[in-house]
From TrEMBL:
<dbReference type="InterPro" id="IPR005251">
    <property type="entry name" value="IF-M1Pi"/>
</dbReference>
<protein>
    <recommendedName>
        <fullName>Methylthioribose-1-phosphate isomerase</fullName>
        <ecNumber>5.3.1.23</ecNumber>
    </recommendedName>
</protein>
<keyword id="KW-0413">Isomerase</keyword>
<keyword id="KW-0028">Amino-acid biosynthesis</keyword>
<dbReference type="Pfam" id="PF01008">
    <property type="entry name" value="IF-2B"/>
</dbReference>
<dbReference type="InterPro" id="IPR027363">
    <property type="entry name" value="M1Pi_N"/>
</dbReference>
<dbReference type="InterPro" id="IPR000649">
    <property type="entry name" value="IF-2B-related"/>
</dbReference>
<dbReference type="GO" id="GO:0046523">
    <property type="term" value="F:S-methyl-5-thioribose-1-phosphate isomerase activity"/>
</dbReference>
<comment type="similarity">
    <text>Belongs to the EIF-2B alpha/beta/delta subunits family. MtnA subfamily.</text>
</comment>
<comment type="function">
    <text>Catalyzes the interconversion of methylthioribose-1-phosphate (MTR-1-P) into methylthioribulose-1-phosphate (MTRu-1-P).</text>
</comment>
<feature type="binding site">
    <location>
        <begin position="249"/>
        <end position="250"/>
    </location>
    <ligand>
        <name>substrate</name>
    </ligand>
</feature>
<feature type="active site" description="Proton donor">
    <location>
        <position position="239"/>
    </location>
</feature>
<comment type="pathway">
    <text>Amino-acid biosynthesis; L-methionine biosynthesis via salvage pathway; L-methionine from S-methyl-5-thio-alpha-D-ribose 1-phosphate: step 1/6.</text>
</comment>
<feature type="site" description="Transition state stabilizer">
    <location>
        <position position="159"/>
    </location>
</feature>
<keyword id="KW-0486">Methionine biosynthesis</keyword>
<dbReference type="InterPro" id="IPR042529">
    <property type="entry name" value="IF_2B-like_C"/>
</dbReference>
<dbReference type="InterPro" id="IPR037171">
    <property type="entry name" value="NagB/RpiA_transferase-like"/>
</dbReference>
Length: 348
C-alpha cells in the first residue's frame, strides 16, 4: 500500500508527473510526461481521471505542446494538439473548459516561444484555483449538511471525487471530508463502482487515509442500504451539468438517484462552476463516453465472460435535475436546481 498523497498531478520544471491511478492502492507509480501525446494517452487510459483532474492535466499538456513546438513560426501546431487533447475523453466538460482557457492565452501570441511562460502560469492558475474552489465548495456543502436532521448521519458516495480526481481536496468527497471533521457525517458507504472500481480502489483508500468510518458495498446493494434507512444522503460529483441542471456522472449514478428518491433519501451533487455547460439545454445533449467491451470481459487480466458475446459499457449516465435535491459549487448551494436558478447562480 502507498502513503497518503494530497494530489495526483505535479508540474516540475517542464515535466508533468501523473500518479498512475490504475495501480492504486497497491502501487504508487508516477508517470513522467514530457510530451503532449503522453498526456493524451494518460487521459484516455485512465492514468489520470476525474473531471477536474483531466482538465488540469490537459492544461499542462498544452504547455508541453508549446515547448515541443517552440521553434515553430505559428501557433497552429499547438492548436492542433489542443483539438486532439479535447477529444481524449468526451463527457467531462472541464477538459474543454481548461483547453479553452489555455487557448485564450496562446492566441495572444503569434508564435509558441513567447507564449510558454504565460501558458505555464495559466496551467498553474487552473490547478491552484481548482484546489481553492474545492475548499470553498466543501465549506458550503458541509454547512448545508450541518443544517439537516439528524445532527449526524451516514452518507453514500459513488466513484471517486476526492483529491485524486481533482487538483486537491475533492468535490463530493471534499464535502464528506469536511463534514466528517465537524461531526456532521459519521459514516460513509462507498460503492465499488464497476468496472474501474474507483470506489473500492480510490475512495476507500482516501477515506482510510483520513481515518473516516466507511464500508464498501457493490452498487447493487444500494437499494437495500437505502431501504434500511442507514444513509440519509447520496453525495456524488459531476462530469458535466447542463443548463437545466441535468447531471452527467459515473455510470450508475442515475440508478442510485432513482433508488434514493424512492426511499426518501436526498441527493447532493458537488462540482465546480467549470463543470457547467450552459450551451447544452439538457442532459440529452451530453455526449456519453462508451469504453471498450474488454473492461467488462476481463477482471485482473483474466477473461470472465464467455467468448463471442457483446457488451454495453457506457462510462457515464444522466441524472435528471428533478432527482437532485442540492447542487453545490464554490458559489454556494442551489436547492432543487432548475434552469432559472442555475442561470442566476453561474453568472454571479
Ligand atoms: O471515469 P472517471 O473515473 O473519470 O469518472 C469520474 C467521475 O464520474 C466523477 O464523479 C467526476 O468526474 C467528478 S470528479 C470530482
Amino acid at each position: 500500500m502507498c502513503t497518503p498523497l494530497n494530489s495526483a498531478i505535479d508540474w516540475q520544471g517542464n515535466t508533468l508527473w501523473l500518479l498512475d491511478q490504475r495501480a492504486l492502492p497497491v502501487d504508487t507509480r508516477w508517470l513522467e510526461c514530457t510530451h503532449v501525446d503522453q498526456v493524451n494517452e494518460a487521459i484516455q487510459t485512465m492514468v489520470v481521471r476525474g473531471a477536474p483532474a483531466i482538465g488540469i492535466a490537459a492544461a499542462y499538456g498544452v504547455v508541453l505542446s508549446a515547448i515541443a513546438h517552440r521553434a515553430a513560426s505559428t501557433i497552429d501546431p499547438i492548436i492542433d494538439d489542443c483539438a486532439r487533447l479535447a477529444q481524449s475523453r468526451p463527457t467531462a466538460v472541464n477538459l474543454q473548459w481548461a483547453i479553452d482557457r489555455m487557448l485564450g492565452v496562446l492566441k495572444k501570441h503569434s508564435a509558441p516561444q513567447p507564449a510558454i511562460d504565460a501558458l505555464v502560469h495559466e496551467a498553474e492558475a487552473i490547478h491552484r484555483e481548482d484546489i481553492e474552489n474545492n475548499l470553498t465548495l466543501a465549506e458550503h456543502g458541509a454547512a448545508f449538511l450541518a443544517q439537516q436532521e439528524p445532527a449526524s448521519f451516514a452518507v453514500m458516495t459513488h466513484c471517486n471525487t476526492g483529491a485524486l480526481a481533482t487538483g486537491g481536496h475533492g468535490t463530493a468527497l471534499g464535502i464528506i471530508q469536511t463534514a466528517w471533521s465537524r461531526g456532521v457525517i459519521d459514516h460513509v458507504v462507498v460503492n465499488e463502482t464497476r468496472p474501474w472500481m474507483q470506489g473500492a480502489r480510490l475512495t476507500a483508500w482516501e477515506l482510510q487515509q483520513s481515518g473516516i468510518s466507511m464500508a464498501l458495498q457493490t452498487e447493487g446493494a444500494a437499494g437495500l442500504t437505502f431501504s434500511s434507512g442507514k444513509t440519509r444522503w447520496l453525495i456524488v460529483g459531476a462530469d458535466r451539468i447542463a443548463a437545466n441542471g441535468d447531471v452527467a456522472n459515473k455510470i450508475g449514478t442515475y440508478t442510485l438517484a432513482i433508488a434514493a428518491r424512492h426511499h426518501g433519501m436526498r441527493v447532493m451533487v458537488a462540482a465546480p462552476i467549470s463543470t457547467f455547460d450552459l450551451s447544452i439545454p439538457d442532459g440529452s445533449h451530453i455526449p456519453i463516453e462508451t469504453r471498450s467491451e474488454d473492461e467488462l470481459f476481463y477482471q485482473g487480466g483474466t477473461r470472465i465472460a464467455p467468448d463471442g458475446i457483446r457488451a454495453f459499457n457506457p462510462a457515464f449516465d444522466i441524472t435528471p435535475h428533478t432527482l437532485i435535491d442540492a447542487l453545490v459549487t464554490e458559489q454556494g448551494v442551489i436547492e432543487t436546481p432548475c434552469r432559472e436558478k442555475i442561470e442566476n447562480h453561474v453568472k454571479v
